[in-house]
Amino acid sequence: MTEPYYDNKAQFDRIRGYVIPGETIFAVYDCKGGGTGFVGITDRRVIFYDQAFLTKKKSMVSIPYNQIIGIASVDEGMIFQTSEITLLTAAGNYTFQFRGADKAHNAYTFIMNQLLGQAHPQLKG
């Protein structure tokens, strides 16, 4: 097992506080734009920091993979030229704008592998 990737140690530490025994963090990515400050990707779920858009309060939100219906990426004519992905769930859609198309692509690939029940590739920055 290699060390998890993270953009910001403080964000990684915040996500780590929400991880349950036996769960593994693979990456914590800093996000840009309003609403979501950062997103953590584990072997069991996506955890993100919501700055008052869902509950009118700052919250850590967890979405287990079995609750994700699909994942979308903006198509700009070439594969993964965008830094944005959207998770589609029964409770609503959650959009994350990563700091780079490479990070969005890594997150997309990992989450799709989890949804399809395949072995996960190594996440990186």
Fold and architecture overview:
By secondary structure, the chain is α+β, with helices and mostly antiparallel strands. The protein contains 2 helices and 8 strands; from the N terminus they run βαβββββββα. β4 and β5 form a beta hairpin. The protein starts with a strand and ends in a 10-residue tail after the last helix. The relative contact order is 0.18.
Throw out a few tags for this protein.
125 residues; alpha+beta; 5-stranded mixed beta sheet; 3-stranded antiparallel beta sheet; 18% helix; globular
Distance between the first and last residues' Cα = 16 Å
Number of helices: 2
Number of strands: 8
- Provide the gyration radius in Å: 13 Å
Helix content: 10-25%
Secondary-structure element pattern, one letter each:
EHEEEEEEEH
Low-confidence stretches: none
Q: Classify the secondary structure makeup into a structural class.
A: alpha+beta
Largest sheet: 5 strands, mixed
Strand order of the largest sheet: 1-2-3-4-5
Mean pLDDT equals 85
Any idea what the shape is?
Answer: globular
Amount of beta strand:
35-45%
Q: Which helices and strands, and how do they pair?
A:
Layout: E1 5-6, H1 9-16, E2 25-30, E3 36-42, E4 45-51, E5 58-64, E6 68-73, E7 84-89, E8 92-97, H2 101-115
Parallel strand pairs: 1-2
Antiparallel strand pairs: 2-3, 3-4, 4-5, 6-7, 7-8
Q: How would you summarize this macromolecular structure in one to three sentences?
A:
With 125 residues, the chain is an alpha+beta fold.
